[in-house]
Design goal:
25% of the residues lie in helices and 15% in strands. The chain is α/β, with parallel strands linked by helices. It contains 14 helices and 21 strands. Strand 19 and strand 20 form a beta hairpin. It binds alpha-D-glucopyranose.
Length: 551
């Protein structure tokens, strides 16, 4: 099913100073960041109050996961009204205040756009259901009669990403498609009203002053003509490895070209970022051709284990894939859909990105700190997920009764451990929900969470928070780090990465033993084990440690 597109020649009208090319972008998950009204749920007022923290941390932009009106069947990725704020997060005035304050602090704001599906409570879907088979509104979604003598079988064999069939039958006999939960019906992007509506939604938020959009399931909007069967019993294994009839279809690109034109109507450098789980980084590059989006998440990087050879291969492949389209590479280690990297790296490799085992926490934290310094030394844009700057582990032992991830419930508890990275973050050592808010927290925080809080770590030079602050300050002082398209690999022993950038070298020991090498320069920063020793022109690099050098 592999398709081929010719990469267009790169154009060079945009200058190399575009803010987003080397930006560090911090993901806020609004439910779990800060609770301004004491109801146990994070909100826009809470975010607004913590913007100075983000400015001081040293990030360039903030991406807000969805805060739109939603029944919250999938934590807000089921949108009922794209132009309204859910009352649990605040009002449009609060959103306006967040955008204004952020801009005054020099931070950009990127909002999440969810175009693949709406909520089943969206006005179009409710009316489509009420009007019955043959309603023109049903054409804006994928309503179809079933197969079998009485239409009792779904229209095709597609499975939901969250488990179970991707089709649900409504009482009048029609079936509708939902690649995710049944409460998330997929839009029919062949319908012009859907295309018009989303261009209008883009303008609504651009008029509000946002600096860009993270586009949810950007690879999913267009389905193969005729909705053909996949013919495989184990579809989830195919995901991310092959082009599926519902993912990464070439037709999506025309949509993003038209969105780019909408953004170009606006002043300022506004951006589109693709959440596109494609089989290869080469296919991700199609989303960021010069007339489409600006960035695409690099999930191949996120999925790479702590191993020098594998990391070098994915770094080289990512940089090479982006070069012909003149887009920056991006790097990400954690987000709201995967186990936090401090816990992934605490476990043996090969277990995937959703784990329920805590592993060796000290090892995981050491590697996480080293992995972050590696990421922040690479050319391109880096994404941070709230709480990783505190070295937070995933909460792997949440009782099933409190879990809210719809994929956990649909997969009969065998999968769907995304709640573990969504536990509200600790701001203070003590107090109700460790400073998250005054009214508890929607997911229980583990004992000892306060020791990992912003308050506990601030001013402690050995803390993960101060490591992030130092790294981001050094990156700002050396804009060359985020810029460029290449790294110069230096000779290094097996299991060690060493590369040069302008006036800078990064060395990474991914092995379990200390390694001795020639010292490339003066130590700037250490992430991992602090026991780095330099003597007589050599350095002993401890296990699982990254060092930044000035040369
Ligand atoms: C994206 C989101 C995820 C959500 C899914 C369906 O992958 O990141 O949280 O469940 O889309 O909208």
């Amino acid at each position: 099913m592999t398709q081929h597109l010719a990469a267009p020649a790169a154009h060079t009208t945009e200058t190399r100073t575009d803010w987003w090319r080397g930006a560090v972008i911090y993901q806020v998950y609004p439910r779990s960041f800060a609770d301004g009204n004491g109801d146990g749920m994070g909100d826009l007022a809470g975010i607004r109050g913590r913007l100075p923290y983000l400015r001081d941390l040293g990030v360039d932009a903030v991406w807000l996961s969805p805060f739109y009106a939603s029944p919250q069947a999938d934590a807000g990725y089921d949108v009922a009204d794209y132009r309204a704020i859910d009352p649990m997060f605040g009002t449009l005035l609060d959103a306006d205040a967040v955008i204004r304050d952020a801009h005054e602090l020099g931070l950009r704001i990127i909002v999440d756009l969810v175009p693949n599906h709406s909520s089943d409570q969206h006005d179009w879907f409710r009316r489509a259901l009420a009007e019955g088979p043959g309603s023109p509104l049903r054409e804006r979604y994928h309503f179809h009669p079933g197969k079998g003598a009485d239409g009792e079988l779904p229209p095709n064999d597609w499975e939901s990403i969250f488990g179970g069939p991707a089709w649900t039958r409504v009482p009048d006999g029609d079936w509708y498609l939902h690649l995710f939960a049944p409460e998330q019906p997929d839009f029919n992007w062949e319908h012009p009203a859907v295309r018009d509506e989303f261009r209008s939604i883009l303008r609504f938020w651009l008029d509000m002053g946002v600096d860009g959009f993270r586009v949810d399931v950007a690879h999913g909007l267009v389905k193969a003509a005729g909705l053909p069967d996949i013919g495989s019993a184990d579809q989830l294994k195919l995901l991310g490895n092959d082009v599926m009839p519902f993912f990464d279809q070439d037709g999506v690109h025309a949509i993003y070209r038209s969105w780019r034109q909408v953004l170009q109507e606006y002043a300022g450098d506004r951006i589109l970022v693709a959440e596109a789980w494609t089989p290869t980084v080469e296919r991700s590059a199609y989303y960021v051709r010069p007339d489409e989006m600006h960035q695409a998440f690099n999930f191949q990087y996120l999925g790479t284990s702590w191993d020098a050879a594998g990391l070098r291969a994915v770094i080289d492949a990512s940089l090479a894939a982006m070069r012909p389209v003149d887009a920056p590479a991006t790097w990400v280690l954690s987000n709201h859909d995967v186990t936090r990297h401090a816990t992934r790296l605490a476990n043996p490799p090969g277990l995937g990105t959703q784990l329920r085992t805590a592993g060796d926490r000290a090892l995981g934290l050491r590697r996480a700190r080293a992995a972050t310094l590696l990421m922040l030394a690479l050319p391109g844009s880096a994404y941070l997920y709230q709480g990783e700057e505190l070295g937070l582990p995933d909460v792997t032992d949440l009782p099933d009764a409190v879990r809210q991830d719809p994929s956990f419930h649909r997969a009969d508890g065998q999968d769907g451990f995304r709640d573990g990275c969504r536990v509200p973050i600790p701001w203070t050592t003590e107090g109700s929900s460790y400073g998250f808010g005054t009214g508890g927290s929607w997911l229980p925080q583990p004992t000892g969470w306060g020791e990992l809080s912003v308050q506990a770590q601030t001013g402690d030079p050995g803390s993960t928070l101060e490591l992030y602050r130092s790294a981001l300050a050094l990156r700002r002082a050396r804009p060359g780090l985020g810029a460029g398209r290449a790294v110069e690999w230096l000779d290094a022993p097996e299991g060690v990465l060493a590369f040069a950038r302008e006036g800078f070298v990064c060395t990474v020991n991914t092995t379990a033993a200390a390694v001795r090498l020639p010292a490339p320069g003066r130590v700037l920063l250490v992430g991992g084990d602090d026991g780095v020793e330099t003597a007589e022109g050599t350095v002993t690099l401890p296990a699982d440690t990254t060092v930044w050098w000035a040369v």
